Amino acid sequence: MTSDDAKRIILDVLSEIAPEVDPATVDHSVDLTEQLDLDSMDYLSWMLGIHEATGIDIPQRDVSLFLTIEGAAAFLTAHAA
Amino acid sequence: MIEFRLPSLGADMDEGMLVAWLVSPGDTVRRGQVVAEVESDKGIIEVECWEDGVVEDLLVTPGPTRLPVGFPLARLRTLDEGTAEEDTPSGPAAAARPEALVAAAPVWPGDEQTIVRHRGPSGPPRVTPPVRHLAHQLGVDLDHVLATGDDGVVRRADIIAARSQAEAGRPRATPMARRVARERGIDLDSILPVRNDGIITSAELTAPAAGVRAAPPPKSRPVGHEVPPVVVKSPPAPQEAPATDKMAAMRAAIARSMARSKREIPHYYLATHVDLGRAMQWLEDENGGRPITRRLLPAVLLLKATALALREVPELNGHWSDDAHHPSADIHLGVAVSLRGGGLVAPAIHHADRLDLDELMEALRDLVGRARTWRIRSSEMSDPTITVTNLGDRGVETTFPVIIPPQVAIVGFGKIADQAVVVDGMIGVHPVVHASLAADHRVTDGHRGGLFLDALVQLLQEPQNL
Fold first, then answer.
1. Partners of residue B365 in chain A, C-beta under 8 Å
2. What's the rounded Cα separation, in Å, for the pair A65 and A81?
3. Structurally, what CATH architecture does the domain formed by B266-465 represent?
4. Where in chain B is the domain with CATH 3.30.559.10?
5. Phi/psi at B242 (nearest 5 deg)?
6. What is the mean pLDDT of each run of 10 residues along chain B (466 residues)?
7. DSSP B125
8. How many contacts does A have with B, using Cβ atoms within 8 A?
9. Residue numbers in B near A41 (CB within 8 A)
10. Given an 8 Å threshold on Cβ–Cβ distance, is A15 in contact with B241?
């Protein structure tokens, strides 16, 4: 999985959780909860959606990587089969 | 014979429009089964039936008529009743009050393909003023209505049936979907419904349906890359916020409820810090061994502790009606869910005190998901016995919540944040949450409210027992 593939999945799932967000305006290096109106349930749903799309589990210790799009993409590319 | 009536849809929600039947005559229904969909100010509500039985007649056809709570929707035969009974009401009393027939008699004219002009002995259609008014509202010509009442009396359901027939051949859509389509100039013929029954809902016109993969906006979507949520034969209007009338209706429902609360309920407010050091550590350890699919949110601990604390101060759990308090033996926790684009619903998680943390987490996830796609069930709307609001994710430290009538208390949680706390004479940094209680002074006093918060604090010190 390339970083672009990962980011595409990440943003696709994000638009399911927060349909009002324009993915083009999301800053990939800034904490998502600071940019977007996401609560903890949205955040969990987002990670669950990424898990469902990729089959990759996201251990609790790595959840902090998912604060940003870049962190999440790095995790996915590192763990993709 | 059991009459299935439109159930209560929550305080200050006294009418709804039947959107669709999910059962047909002859179907066996089970207690708790969702049998119909009703559109209310708080979105589409899935209406459950609370009896076992066989559907005998559907008394109302889906349509834009606003039906009052308690309106008979269907008749059920109990499972031991055997075949249909002969119970057509007649006689002078019924004939004198044709409106009463709507509630008692089957009114579905069947699959008539031809609209038959049917008149009583005296010539012109026999219509009561309310039914005439309904016909006018729906644009139904009374001269072309099949009257099924005794002596040629036109009944309310005849009007609705005529209207449904007039609509046959047009795309089947909910009233709200028709409004949205009209406002945006979308041709409903161009929308393929996603539901199995073929009825187009406003969700297909406004937001991606739950569980359907959303496509990013067109500018970033590679052609042919992904199946868009709305399958259209021609491009729809650009996606916008939910329909303004939908939001306006919800705003009005919130306004009625909250104005009544502030007008009628003498609130008192209490708040306390809760040290969540142990609870968050326990949660971290617990989640560490779980896959992402089974992870628990801190909110689940707060909800469970609230439910258990209510067992110790049960008078906070219940309803105020007819100038009296009616405590509830069951604990149905209303959970305030804010909707994207504004608005709020607080449907219930039933028997929250009896669910383990995994069950509660699943119930919460399910409820929030359905609330945000405007699909909640009638029982969830009608019977919360207390509400919990958790604004912590939005960065608020303390909440001062407003009781949702006819409930008698509401519990609020703020943000979980690290704070300096003193434990055994030592200052440490622990995660802390502010818990607050707003309660009805007609029912309880601050002392009892304080005992509730104290119980809550104690329960959260032993997360493994929740």
1. 41, 44-45
2. 19
3. 2-Layer Sandwich (3.30)
4. 266-465
5. -55, 155
6. 83 78 89 85 80 88 84 86 48 37 29 30 65 74 71 73 58 66 65 58 54 36 39 38 65 88 96 96 94 94 97 96 94 91 87 96 91 82 90 81 96 94 92 97 97 98 95
7. -
8. 64
9. 297, 299, 364-365, 368
10. no
